[in-house]
Amino acid sequence: MRQPCGQPPHPPPATWQHGGVTAATHSSPFPQVPESADAVLDGLDPEQREVATALHGPVCVLAGAGTGKTRAITHRIAYGVRAGILQPASVLAVTFTNRAAGEMRGRLRQLGAGGVQARTFHSAALRQLQYFWPKAVGGEMPRLLERKIQLVAEAAARCRIRLDRNELRDVTGEIEWAKVTQTVPADYPAAVAKSLRDAPRDPAEISQVYAMYEQLKRDRSVIDFEDVLLLTVGILQDRHDIADHVRRQYQHFVVDEYQDVSPLQQRLLDLWLGDRESLCVVGDASQTIYSFTGATPDHLLNFRTRHPGATVVKLVRDYRSTPQVVHLANGLLGQARGRAAEHRLELISQREPGPEPSYVEYADEPAEAEGTARRIRELIDAGVPAGEIAVLYRINAQSEVYEQALADAGVPYQLRGAERFFERQEVREAGIALRGAARAGGNDALLDDVEDLPSQVRAVLSTKGWTTEPPAGSGAVRDRWESLAALVRLAEDFVRARPQATLADLVAELDERAAAQHAPTVQGVTLASLHSAKGLEWDAVFLVGLTEGMMPITYAKTDEQVEEERRLLYVGVTRARLHLSLSWALSRAPGGRASRRPTRFLNGLRPGSAAAGPRTAGGAGGVERGGGRRKRRGPVLCRVCGKTLTDAGEMKLMRCEDCPSDMDEALYERLREWRSGQAKELGQPAYCVFTDKTLMAIAEAVPGTEAELAGISGVGGRKLDRFGADVLAICAGEEPGEADEED
Questions:
Q1: What pTM did the predictor assign?
Q2: Residue pair 44/74 in contact by the 8 Å Cβ criterion
Q3: What is the pLDDT of residue 450?
């Protein structure tokens, strides 16, 4: 209720509106299990509570980004289980990634509903296929093909069709799309034409490769992941006794990210359900970004038509992002067109105001990467954890220049899309070592004189490569250390939540987390594509490379393809909780022609831009000019052969990687030795001082003045002020610090 003008507001009541709803990301990693079914509902807002208590009949939850959809559906399942309405073994919750399924299992376990099955469509189907194969088909089930690309390559060769590496990946994607849309090889060309799909090769050629690929699989008795769904559908359609068996086991279904369901997955879901309507679906048509894999929001948008009596709940209270971020997100969708846009949700931020999103224009891509790294360094220095920062780009090929820039700025990072945490070799080895120490108990000499749990974990992991200080560099050794450090932090969190916990308790917790794929956080700035960032969130997000041709991507030709690119940017924007930066570069390489334009999706949203028509003069109305003191440079040429350089590492060396080096090896070794001492003194990895490439460039150039040293890529103003005198002294054959002592 509004207060009379000029009157101070009443103190806020202690309800869900005023702190009762907490962001899952910032909650304790080991919350207490609710004491009762009613306690499961504590802290839910009215709409989330409506979801949690709607346990009968079809339910459709339209959930905007950051509105707590996973919280709502996991509390719904847990409430039903704890109240005795749902039997844990009778519930099947399905989603689209192992990470999301693992997170769901972890949350259900924390809510006291650990017996519920939460799986991906493929995982659930594979279990059923393995179980029913002997009865339905007989004999041994065909071997599952983990990676189909090699077999596709062989199929293309047999068809005498040459495919380069990129074409091979694209054709493999086309075969996957055809299968999930239930398109056989002969029908592929017609299906491509009907869907206005931009095939990477002649559709007739792809049809040939597709047919040969299927033949090779039959000859070798192997199946791929799409076959898992197709075969399960076939068995459930043909064998009513098996379908009845599955339906007796699973009485209630929950489908997360329903906007990403493919026709094949929907067919499987229909067979699981039969003629029942005990189904809850959750989704947001504005986050449909996987149509290239066969996903379609039509099933979500048509849900109320198929189920006229469905309960529909809209979640629009955004607990993730500030009003400033939400305003931009709503603005992006406000310009959208098409059927999904007609069903967009207007988000309402529940957070305190924060900084306005920043819009930064750079001269070239290296300048954009360096500027981004510098701003990230400033955030970290101001107290934002590196693990709460992300750099998001349209395609993975954009990551390299940001990896180099972050390394130069002394910022640790991790690439999204690497192997899952609990499958890493060092994590498996650490688990074995911790399990052995827990079994040995007081008989393990390693744990003599070590009392508290975190110290025990540190002692055990020190035999596997963990040290109190991180190693130098940013390669495999650093990645291994980061994994072990994440386990140490997990032990520290665990003992804070459960002070009496033992090493055996921690090992049990790790086993449960491994089964649920509920990984601890590895510290480091996340570098990720926009697609792989779906479902994640950070305190600070840097959206980079936002130019026409990259966003929307060049091959987005149709209106629907362009609208999907807009939705992809919307997903990127809504990953940010507090800080959001959007940037673009006017040219690719230093000195290149400034011919690029910022993405059309920001027209009318970024300061100084018009909502439609040609771009207005850059830099007006608050668009920041990135790069600071960076001088405009001409093309970077190899100083040996004269070729124009575009690779970030080669540009740093000022020569092609293959061109002969005139590096002073002795000087390089002296610089490395000096760097090691500096890193130890500062308590930072060596690459935070200078990367190996920068030291090589210095040893090749042998600068004699500050100006010459500043001209070397990787030696910014901050590093010049801090280390310049020492480096110049070493280059002059003197000991670092001698000049200071003489002064």
A1: 0.68
A2: no
A3: 72
